Amino acid sequence: MSKNKITQVLRQYRKIHKVLGLVLVAFLTISAATGIFLAWKKKVAAIQPPTLNGQADELSDWRPIAELAEVATMAFHKAHPNHSNTGIDRMDLRPSKGIVKVLFEKGWWEVQVDGATAEVLSIKRRNSDWIEQIHDGSIISDGFKLVSMNILGVGLLVMIFTGWYLWYGPRKYRRIKRKNRNK
Questions:
Q1: Are 62 and 116 in a shared domain?
Q2: Structure confidence by residue, pLDDT tens digits, 50-85
Q3: Taking CA 79 as the corner, what is the angle to CA 74 and CA 80, rounded to the nearest 5 degrees?
């Protein structure tokens, strides 16, 4: 490759790198900031309530799942009557901890219930869930999540390639220049 061709490619890549960087900066900033919070979610109770321990770690000693769900729902609606129309989104069984985490559809609430005794151990908000939705774009919509994560992924790959060439290109240019000088 000639010096002129390398110079032209470097100029094009610099433009691509600069424009793409400006386009991606908002996505990257949001993704990086929320990613830091998500990395700490198991360590900081304000982000995600700590997983408590129940009495039995054998599922055979547990109450039926339907009963645990009903206990969690009743406790949640009693503690937060303004959310009385909010149903269960999912249940996270933790046999090794002896508990089930019941997560509700609205408000990012979690109720932890002892699997063996059906005792409510905690009712707390899971801030990690809305942080994760901001992180991946699903807080806007699933369509936005799909588009934004693809833009971010492809954009980062292009940034890596153009950044590498912006580092490598001048070295190649200098090597050709030295070679021509020594002829």
A1: yes
A2: 999 999 888 999 999 999 999 999 999 999 998 888
A3: 95
Q: What is d(CA 131, CA 137) in angstroms, rounded to the nearest whole number?
A: 10
Tell me: do 41 and 4 sit in the same domain: yes
CB atoms < 10 A from the CB of 61, how many? Answer: 14
pLDDT tens by residue, 11-37: 898 899 899 999 899 889 999 999 999
Q: Can you list the alpha helix ranges (DSSP code H) found in 40-90?
A: 65-79
Domain containing 74: what range?
Answer: 49-125
- As for how many domains the chain has, the answer is 2
Q: For the chain, first and last CA: distance in Å?
A: 17
For residues 115 and 103, membership in a common domain is answered with yes
Is the domain of 54 the same as that of 121? Answer: yes
Mean pLDDT across the chain: 92
pLDDT tens digits, one per residue of 163-175: 898 888 888 878 8
